[in-house]
Amino acid sequence: MKLFKVAIDGPAGSGKSTIAKEIAKIFNLFYLDSGALYRAFGYYLKKMGFDLNNENDIINALKTFDIKIIKNDYYLFNEKLDFQIRTPEIGKAASIVAKNPNVREKVNQILRNIAKVHSVVIDGRDIGTVVLPDADVKIFLTASIEERAKRRYNELIKKNKKVNFEDVLIEIEKRDKADSTRKIAPLKPAEDAIIVDTTGKNIKEVITEIKNIILKKI
Ligand code: C5P
């Protein structure tokens, strides 16, 4: 049977992971969160006391970095990764290590190995452009920066985190800039991606829109 591949890219807070998870359920695809792998690597470096900006530290950490993906769960050695990689601090660390070509190669290898044997939906920044240039469907999700910051803020408040809206907005602005201006695999839509602007739309509406795009390609 031919494998089916869906790429969902977009900036922080565009709703990629929520949407990708639902699309995975609807079409019975393996869901992969590429951002979680960059976060896991950033978390690992910090945990080992390594310097995020030091090439030698990164090379050494890559030699031992051992991540397992079981269903929707990510394990660093035997530690199940969850809330500990979802902090703004680890988001920032992920964005720093994601600039390194060796780190990107490692993450891409993990993702492609799974996509070789499973039908997948992968979310990230460069899935349609670099990781799966041959994806059957490429979606680029966007939303206004205020709306993305509002979503992130609400998510953090729900988790009882003490944050203020301005800080969340500034953090997202910084991450957008870092992700879209970096030299290697910058955040940008693939030429053949379908752009879906989610500003003012609820999750159900976005899922229906994407579901219809995919149904036309099946
Ligand atoms: O999507 P998420 O916010 O979890 O990603 C964390 C960071 O990992 C992003 O800000 C980005 O710098 C990096 N990333 C990337 N390429 C991807 C996915 C994430 O560079 N495909």
UniProtKB/TrEMBL annotation:
Its main location: cytoplasm. It comes from the Bacteria. It catalyses: dCMP + ATP = dCDP + ADP; CMP + ATP = CDP + ADP. SUPFAM superfamilies: P-loop containing nucleoside triphosphate hydrolases. The keyword Chaperone does not apply. Keywords: ATP-binding, Cytoplasm, Kinase, Nucleotide-binding, Transferase. ATP binds at G10, P11, A12, G13, S14, G15, K16, S17, T18. It is found in: Cytoplasm. Its EC number is 2.7.4.25. GO terms for molecular function: ATP binding; CMP kinase activity; dCMP kinase activity. Residues 6-214 form the Cytidylate kinase domain. GO terms for cellular component: cytosol. GO terms for biological process: nucleobase-containing small molecule interconversion; pyrimidine nucleotide metabolic process. Belongs to the cytidylate kinase family. Type 1 subfamily. This is Cytidylate kinase. It comes from Marinitoga hydrogenitolerans (strain DSM 16785 / JCM 12826 / AT1271).
